Amino acid sequence: MVKFLIATHGDLASGFKSSLGIILGKEMADLVETVNAFTRDENPKEAIDNLIASLGKGDQLVIFSDWMNGSVNQICTPHASEDKVYVVTGANLPLICEVLGDMGGAARVSENALRAAVDRAKNEVRYVNDLFRSSEHLGGLTDEDSFF
């Protein structure tokens, strides 16, 4: 079974999980474990290592971390060499929603689906002011026009 972990600095992981509950529903959000590093007495390395150690023989784990060069991702990165662990960093809400929507409840991770989701999520990071100025993207919306 595919399992999910969001590991971040501070309470961002719990915030992502809360948002997942609103967008995808509580049942999907409940598939996600969180590590809110450096916020409580919990040692993030120990928490991540313990979760990975608890995986069953057929289980796989997708880890979302917040920052490529951050300490939390540095804890996760060594596990990427394990066949059953997949680490995705620079996570944002659209990425996590897409992967959970595709793989929540699935038996196996699709690495191609992970790669495609990462590529699409990169396009979600935008400087909106430029979009409003650009007739190429949104027809040069004004503040009187509806964005949606």
Give average pLDDT, whole number.
92
The count of β-strands is: 4
Count the domains. 1
**Physical arrangement of strands within the biggest beta sheet:** 2-1-3-4
Q: What radius of gyration results from the CA coordinates?
A: 17 Å
Domain PTS EIIA type-4: 1-125
Keywords: Transferase
GO molecular function, one term: transferase activity
InterPro entries: Bacterial_PTS_sugar_comp, PTS_EIIA_man-typ, PTS_EIIA_man-typ_sf
Molecular structure report:
- With 148 residues, the chain is α/β, with parallel strands linked by helices.
- Strands 2-1-3-4 form a four-stranded parallel β-sheet, with helices on both faces.
- The relative contact order is 0.16.
- The protein contains eight helices and four strands; from the N terminus they run βααβαβαβαααα.
- Helix 4 links the parallel strand 3 and strand 4 (85-88).
- The protein has helices at residues 12-23, 26-29, 44-53, 71-76, 93-103, 111-122, 128-133, 135-138; strands at 2-9, 32-37, 60-65, 85-88.
- The longest helix is centred in the first third of the chain and has 12 residues, at 12-23.
- The protein has a single domain (2-138), classed as Rossmann fold, CATH 3.40.50.510.
- 44% of the residues lie in helices and 16% in strands.
Brief characterization of the structure:
One of its GO terms (cellular component) is membrane. This protein is α/β, with parallel strands linked by helices and 148 residues long.
